[in-house]
Amino acid sequence: MTEKQPSASTDENGNEEDVMSERFTLPVLPLRDTVVYPGVAVPISAGRPGTVEAVQEALDGDRRMFAVAQRDNVDDPLPEYLYSVGTVVRIIQTHRMRGGMQLLVQGEGRAQALSYHDEGQAMLHAVLLEMDRQEPQNESDPAFQALDRELRDRAAELGTRRGVPAEALNQLIQGVDEPGPFADLVAFYLELDTGDKQELLETLADEDRMRACLVAVERELARIDAQEEIQAQVQTELGARQREMLLREQLKAIQKELGDEEERDDIEEMRDRIEELELTEDQRLEINRELRRLERTSPQSAEYQVIRTFLEWITELPWNERTEEKIDLAKAETILEEDHYGLEDIKDRILEFLAVRKLQLDRMSEKEIDQEANPDEEISGSELDEEEGELTSEDALSGRGPILLFVGPPGVGKTSIAQSIARSLDRSYVRISLGGARDEADIRGHRTYVGAMPGRIVQGMRQAKTKNPVFLLDEVDKLGVSFQGDPSSALLEVLDPAQNSTFVDHYLGIPFDLSEVLFIATANYLDRIPGPLLDRMERVDFSGYTEAEKLEIGKRYLLPRQLKENGLHEQELEMGDDALLAIIQKYTREAGVRQLEREVGKFSRKVARQIAAGKIDELQATEGDVRELLGRPRVHPEQMAAEDTIGVATGMFYTPMGGDIMFVEASVMPGEGSFVLTGQLGDVMKESGRAALSYAKAHWKELGVAEDSLQGKEVHIHVPAGAVPKDGPSAGITMATALISAVSGKKVRNDLAMTGELTLTGRVLPIGGVKEKVLGAVRAGINQIILPTENEADLEDIPEDLRSSLTFHLASTLDDVVKIALTERKKRKRKRAPAKRKRAAKTSTATA
Fold it and tell me: Which one from 382, 420, 515, 730 is the annotated catalytic residue?
């Protein structure tokens, strides 16, 4: 659509006259880092959705577009980011490719955008007014002709200096006779900023544009002169280096006569190894300084060996060697399943991490293929249509991602999971133990005396021999603090992706890049890790195994491994489920399986001894064989009370070795109104007992307790196993229940265990370690559990078959707890019934 628009022009006599120019509308082709001039053919890469849509509309029409440069290099070319003056271009050729299309456009004439507006899905249209360049009034003027000739001569000289063949250069210059279009051609090929090129485009007067181009050409020639002068200086310096090499050869001959040839050969070998390293300028400067010190030092001095050891460390570190990753998710899942039983949540998290790494590498590979298929993109200066959010090569190679922290009890598979990750990624695996490290130099190294060494991080990198290993920091919660420094503070830089690319070991004294290392840390106690260090890691929780899981692990992994280590064949020792379960229940008490493997190994050794002595040929092990060879059971876990009892409530507790039950006993007797807590309780647990007593006194009526039942009475709460320190708030409702039972005379159910923190107003607050506590209660024969209402979501962590065999009661107040725990059961079982329940509970646990 076009319409008339009055504009000013000049007649033959130089007087302005009004003519009617036509306004017209074209789709917009936004350009990044380039400007198109009339008469010039330019290759353009189009990939943004709006640009592709505009090109398609132009192809469906008269193939014309309005090519205009962006003021800023942004992905979304809004009108405010576009200049108002551009070039009307015609599409000559198109080539579709992955992610967009490649265009060849020919500039036709200048135009001014009166307005921009949105069209279609994402493209822009521009209402344009044609702009005519102003030709010189007298082209035969000698000054103008001199300007034209000077511009052509200097442009030809610039082309020659750039290496353009003379034949092609002459054809290009002679192909444009008119001065104005020739100035446009020169302006396009000049190395100028987008703003400067846009200014030349907006200069309508041919003579002014020619002068500006001539100045730019002269500036470019001056830059080339300076560059050639620098190159000449470099060549001179290279000549000096060759002279230095000649002198060194002469020095070698002199040293050979003096008997120092062997040491100097070592130095030359060291020099060659350093030259092969890919180092930054600052790193190479520091290392060459040490090498020169080595040359000046006598081989008999102690300093000579110190410097030599330093340079050997430098040459043995993986500065640029990296392992190529080949991530196969199916293979990774198979590896995890082969190496570990259970731990489903952990395996899912690891596979998610590997999936993210695979996507990063695949996207980077696709980008490299596109660049190889379209090498002209860089030449055109039109890398303006990259898709938003595309990965850079640095991001893909660095492998930056979460630093994982595996937290859980000993023996649950934290270290072996890290090894499986390394196998899945086909990376090198390095493990260092931080347990007991109290010196900051253990992490950062030291270089203040003879025999100094790098820190454990750099030592691990040398061991890995690659820049991107899987690096396990074991027992990070066991770091100590002493007058020698805080090693956890040194780890802050190591585990920060924003800083570890320039990690400086005190021994090396130069930055070493750790950004491509996949760090994994392990810990048993989360509260012992400093807050700033914990903030840099993503926590992955490992919980203890159920007896059913231990049974499967024993059959699949532990028993075959111990048979091999003790020289037994599979047919020589077979252990049934009852034998393995007997070891699990009666000889081990742990959340993991380390002690279980030791006991299985001990049993295998005793069988091997009998086979070697000729007493037996093979053994089908039963529970009786376990009792005979391993001796009496050494583990005596708590079992549920034999009957309902007044003043005794069953609680649950958690330790890093797993969960278990405990009995809280309360007694009320005549006295002076004192309150006694015994059983080696911590401050938090004592406070829970006092809160329980205060609540019972304040709410005697709701609890069905006589008003004067606690007046002038001595209250004593005791938690057995007094040799074991106990602390934590989760025994609050257990203490309150035992106390209320002792005061009211009502019995507490013996098949019920509870856990939860109690407030002074009777609210039951959530606690942690639900899974481990429930597993401990099940081992003791408990089948009724009271949990805080807010812990309902934690029940999902308990295996489904085990969860279905238990009854869970959710309590939000102490009244809810009392109603369940102190309910009189009508049907009483025989005296031997509790023993039957215990055996049944054990059987159900073993098959869970």
Answer: 730
On whether the CB atoms of residues 103 and 80 are closer than 8 A, the answer is no
Q: How many CB atoms lie within 10 A of CB 32?
A: 20
Q: Which residue(s) pair with 104 in the sheet?
A: 43, 93
741 flagged as catalytic: no
Q: For this structure, is 773 an active site residue?
A: yes
**CA 620 – CA 598 distance, rounded (Å):** 20
Q: In angstroms, how far is CA 655 from the centroid of its own chain?
A: 30
Question: Can you state the angle between helices 414-425 and 344-373, rounded to 10 degrees?
Answer: 20
Rounded-to-integer distance, Cα 779 and Cα 202, Å: 86
pLDDT single digits (tens) 12-51: 444 444 444 578 899 999 998 889 999 888 898 888 888 8
Distance CA 370, CA 377 (A): 10
Per the CB < 8 A criterion, the answer to whether 494 and 514 are in contact is: yes
Q: In the prediction, which pLDDT does 387 show?
A: 40
Of the candidates 662, 732, 729, the residue with the CA atom closest to the CA atom of residue 695: 732
The C-alpha atoms of residue 444 and residue 455 are separated, in whole angstroms, by: 5
Residue type, 432: I
Q: Are strands 64-69 and 16-31 parallel, antiparallel or unpaired?
A: parallel
**pTM for this predicted structure:** 0.58
Please name every residue paired with 405 in a beta bridge, in sequence order, or none if there are none.
521, 539
pLDDT band at residue 755 using 50, 70 and 90 as cut-offs = very high
* CA distance linking residue 594 with residue 562, whole number of Å: 12
The proportion of the chain whose per-residue pLDDT surpasses 70, expressed as a percent, equals 86
Residue 191: per-residue pLDDT: 84
How far apart are alpha carbons 230 and 236 in whole angstroms?
Answer: 10
DSSP codes joined into one string, 271-320: HHHHHHS---HHHHHHHHHHHHHHHHS-TTSHHHHHHHHHHHHHHHS-SS
CA 427, 428, 434, 437 dihedral sign is: negative
Closest CA to 357 of 423, 425, 296, 308: 425
Assign 632 to helix, strand or coil.
Answer: coil
What tokens does 260 get? 């120092």
Contact 406, 413 (CB under 8 A): no
Please name which of 393, 319, 404 lies closest in space to residue 360, comparing C-alpha atoms.
Answer: 393
Report the C-alpha dihedral over residues 665, 669, 675, 679, rounded to 10 degrees: -30
Phi, psi (deg, nearest 5) at residue 342: 75, -150
| Active-site residue, selected from the candidate residues 347, 746, 773, 842 | 773
| Structure-token pair, residue 706 | 């006589």
Question: Please, are residues 201 and 85 in contact by the beta-carbon 8 Å criterion?
Answer: yes
Calpha distance 588→662 (Å, rounded): 18
Number of H helices and number of E strands within the chain?
29, 27
**Could you write out the DSSP letters of every residue in 448-510?**
SSTT----HHHHHHHHHTSSS-EEEEETGGG---BTTB-HHHHHHHHT-TTTGGGEE-TTT-S
The strands making up 404-407's β-sheet, listed across from edge to edge, are: 429-433, 470-474, 518-523, 404-407, 538-541
Q: Which of 793, 798, 790 is nearest to 767 (CA)?
A: 790
